[in-house]
Specification:
- With 335 residues, the protein is an alpha+beta fold.
- Helices cover 41% and strands 26% of the residues.
- The longest helix has 37 residues.
- The N and C termini lie far apart (104 Å).
Length: 335
C-alpha cells in the first residue's frame, strides 16, 4: 500500500513537472516574438518592457490560477511624461466605486456618456474635465472602454488590465496605453507650446513657465505646483496707476475707496492714493470691460499700481491662450 502511494506521488510530481515544463517552452517563444514585434526587451520570463512612441511601457502576463493556461491577466502600463494633478485618478466604473460616490465620495462628471463607464476622482475638477473631454483623449477612452480592458490612471501611469493571455496581441494594448499617455501629456503641453510659437516667447528654465512680450507688454505665465496648484499670469504696467492702488474681487477685499464709477465701485474692491486719477484711467468702456473680465475670471486676481496678476486654480490648458490675451490687452489698454 505504501509502495502504491509512493508511486502515485512520484507519478503526480512527474505530471506536474511535465505540465510546467510543457508550459514554459510553449510561452517563452511567444513572449520573445511579442517583444520582437513591439521592439521591446524581455525583462524576465513573463514581462516585456522598453520604449514605444517615446513612452516607457511594460507588459506583464500573470496567471491567476497556476496550471491553467486560460486563467491569465495581461497588465499593460505606460508612464506619463507629465504627471496628472495630485489626487487625480481614473478607473473603470464598478459597483463598489459608484457606491462609494453615493456615500460621500462623489466622482467628477464629464457631462457625457463616459460618466457611466468611468469613475473619476480629483480636487481639480475643471482641469480634469478640460483634459478628458479633449477630442483625442475622449476617442482613446472610448476605444478602451469598449474592450474587455479595465482602466486605471493613478496620476503617473496609464494602466490596462485585460483578461486572458494576450501575448499574441501585445501590440494592441501597448499601443492603447502608450497613445493615451502620450495624448494626455500633449494636451497638457500643447497650449503652452503653441503660445510660445505664436508670440516668440521663451520657456523658463524649469519648463513650467513662459516669458516674453505680447502686444508690447511684458508677460509671464507660470504653472506653480506648490503649496497650491495654480496658474499665474503677470503683466508689468508700462504706465503705472496711482500709488497704493489695489483692485480685487469684492469677495477677496473690502470696498475701501469709491472712484465715482458706479459699475466698478459696485463690482470691485478698490483702494488707491488718488481716486480721481484712477477713475480717469479706468472709466473707459474697453478698460472697464477688460478689468472686470480679468479680476472676475478667478477671484484672487489683482491689479496693483504696477502689476496685473491673474490667478487660476490648476494648470490652464484649453483657456490658457484666452487668459493670457486678456491680461495682455488690459495691460496695453492701460499703457
Amino acid at each position: 500500500m505504501e509502495m502504491l502511494f509512493l508511486a502515485m506521488l512520484i507519478g503526480g510530481l512527474g505530471l506536474v513537472s511535465w505540465a510546467a515544463g510543457a508550459k514554459t517552452p510553449a510561452r517563452a517563444p511567444r513572449v520573445l516574438a511579442a517583444a520582437a514585434r513591439a521592439q521591446l526587451d524581455v525583462e524576465h520570463g513573463d514581462q516585456v518592457g522598453g520604449g514605444r512612441y517615446g513612452i516607457s511601457v511594460r507588459q506583464r502576463y500573470e496567471s491567476t490560477n497556476p496550471g491553467f493556461e486560460s486563467d491569465w491577466v495581461t497588465h499593460t502600463s505606460a508612464s506619463l511624461p507629465r504627471p496628472l494633478p495630485p489626487g487625480f485618478s481614473v478607473s473603470t466604473a464598478t459597483y463598489f466605486n459608484h457606491a462609494a460616490g453615493l456615500m460621500g465620495s462623489p466622482d467628477i462628471q464629464l457631462g457625457n456618456d463616459l460618466d457611466d463607464a468611468l469613475f473619476i476622482r480629483g480636487p481639480h475638477a475643471r482641469e480634469v474635465v478640460e483634459l478628458l473631454t479633449e477630442p483625442a483623449v475622449d476617442a482613446l477612452l472610448r476605444q478602451i472602454v469598449t474592450t474587455s480592458t479595465r482602466l486605471d490612471i493613478p496620476r503617473r501611469f496609464v494602466e490596462l488590465h485585460t483578461d486572458g493571455d494576450q501575448v499574441d496581441h501585445a501590440e494592441v494594448y501597448l499601443d492603447l496605453a502608450a497613445n493615451l499617455a502620450n495624448t494626455l501629456s500633449k494636451v497638457m503641453d500643447e497650449p503652452w507650446d503653441t503660445l510660445v510659437a505664436e508670440h516668440n516667447l521663451t520657456f523658463t528654465e524649469d519648463g513650467n513657465g513662459i516669458i516674453g512680450t505680447i502686444l508690447g507688454q511684458s508677460i509671464t505665465a507660470e504653472f506653480v505646483n506648490k503649496p497650491v496648484r495654480k496658474t499665474v499670469i503677470t503683466a508689468h504696467l508700462i504706465r503705472p496707476l496711482p500709488e497704493r492702488t489695489y483692485i480685487r474681487h469684492p469677495d477677496h477685499g473690502n470696498h475701501t475707496d469709491s472712484i465715482g464709477d458706479p459699475i466698478l465701485d459696485s463690482m470691485l474692491a478698490i483702494s488707491t492714493s488718488n481716486a480721481g486719477v484712477l477713475a480717469d484711467r479706468l472709466s473707459k468702456d474697453d478698460i472697464r470691460g477688460l478689468l472686470l473680465e480679468v479680476v472676475h475670471a478667478h477671484p484672487g486676481s489683482t491689479v496693483t499700481a504696477s502689476t496685473i496678476t491673474f490667478f487660476a486654480p490648476g494648470r490652464l490648458n484649453r483657456t490658457l491662450k484666452a487668459s493670457v490675451q486678456s491680461v495682455a490687452e488690459l495691460a496695453a489698454a492701460l499703457a
